[in-house]
Amino acid sequence: MNLDELKKLKEKAQRQVALREGNKKYRVVFSMGTSGIAAGAREIMTTMLDEIDKRGIENVEVAVTGEIGLVDAEPVIRIEERSGEKVTYAKVNADAARKIVSEHLQKGKVVDGLAVGKVKQKEAERLK
Amino acid sequence: MFDQLSLNILDIGMNSLAAGATVLRITVIENAEHDWLVIRIRDNGHGMDQKTLREILARNASTKAGRKKPIGLGLALLRQTSEMCGGAFHVHSAPGEGTGVTASMRASHVDRPPLGDLNATIFALCAANPTVDIQLNCESNGEKFHFSSQEGKYHEPRRTQEAQREGTAAGRAA
Ligand SMILES: Nc1ncnc2c1ncn2[C@@H]1O[C@H](COP(=O)(O)OP(=O)(O)O)[C@@H](O)[C@H]1O
Ligand SMILES: [Mg+2]
């Protein structure tokens, strides 16, 4: 680990503060409990934030939760729209993470093949 | 479950964020000569009373609601790793004062996982809660560095900052 890398890290971290501010259209919630982390949540988060950054998307805020209630389906992320609509994505890999950014967050289109069904989603919400 | 110690650190750090910490200090000390690796995660969150802490350590209990079984894994996993690698595991906590978790291990132990991507862990913690001061202190065989996510946060835009720095340097030189 070198100082340059750390400096870049800090700048990136500061951009994250900007991502938090204001009433954004989307809120991306990462499941970051023990099971989520073990399944790769850290890399999924990094990939998504990089992609959001690269595309200059500004209508997004990020949050984490300890347990999203879908242990078998980790890594799990949930996208909450200001309108109240929620979409949960399960078993998210790096490709899926980038697709969710380019389709859902940028174009407003739910990525059908990756979103979990309503029943599982209800289950997850109940446990939140 | 974790193949990198930096993932344990992220997991333990998430406990601190959940406990409402505003300062989270991660210390990693590597000493080849004495063959130690020490990881410390200290927060100023709400802490735990002694009874709760004893119970958590004895039964790997969790206080998280909405679980079928109130079992927590995070502390247990780090404890297992450190004890397996010839080290010790210690949690110190007091209500209102915060919590400190210390895990040591033999650096050269065959089962010791690599630290892995510590940067990614720090970044994830910063992104998880950008208002918390995430600090990293590394001490590797005599070399030291310190990182704080809040350092410089309230400064002016970079140009002003640079001008100020130049001004200070000039002042010192004069
Ligand atoms: N830094 C901390 N501050 C306050 N309480 C903590 C902290 N770390 C752990 N705990 C308590 O210990 C319990 C067990 O933690 P852990 O083993 O990580 O499992 P989990 O986070 O899944 O519950 C937590 O539910 C919490 O009550
Ligand atoms: Mg935990």
Question: What does this entry look like structurally?
Answer:
The complex is a heterodimer of chains A (128) and B (174). Chain A is α+β, with helices and mostly antiparallel strands. Chain A contains 5 helices and 4 strands. In chain A, strands 2-1-3-4 form a 4-stranded mixed beta sheet. In chain A, strand 3 and strand 4 form a beta hairpin. The longest helix of chain A is centred in the N-terminal third of the chain and has 18 residues, at 3-20. Mean pLDDT of chain B is 86; it is low at 154-165 and 167-174. Chain B has helices at residues 5-18, 50-59, 74-84, 118-128, 158-173, and strands spanning 23-31, 36-43, 89-94, 98-106, 133-140, 143-148. The termini of chain B are far apart. With 174 residues, chain B is an alpha+beta fold. Chain A binds chain B through residues 1, 3, 5-6, 9-10, 12-14, 16-17, 19-20, 30, 32-35, 37-38, 42-43, 45-46, 49, 62-64, 66-67, 69, 126-128, and chain B through 1-2, 7, 10-11, 14, 17-18, 64, 66-67, 72-74, 77, 117-124, 126-131, 134, 138, 145, 147, 149, 151-153. Adenosine-5'-diphosphate is lined by residues 15-16, 19, 43, 45-48, 56, 62-64, 72-76, 99 of chain B. Magnesium ion binds at residues 11, 14-15, 72, 74 of chain B.
What's the gist of this structure?
The complex is a heterodimer of chains A (128) and B (174). Chain A is of the alpha+beta class and 128 residues long.
Chain-wise SSE layout:
The complex is a heterodimer of chains A (128) and B (174).
Chain A: H1 3-20, E1 26-31, H2 34-38, H3 41-54, E2 60-65, E3 77-81, E4 86-89, H4 94-107, H5 118-127
Parallel strand pairs in A: 1-2
Antiparallel strand pairs in A: 1-3, 3-4
Chain B: H1 5-18, E1 23-31, E2 36-43, H2 50-59, H3 74-84, E3 89-94, E4 98-106, H4 118-128, E5 133-140, E6 143-148, H5 158-173
Parallel strand pairs in B: 1-5
Antiparallel strand pairs in B: 1-2, 2-4, 3-4, 5-6
Helix pairs in contact in B: 1-3, 1-4
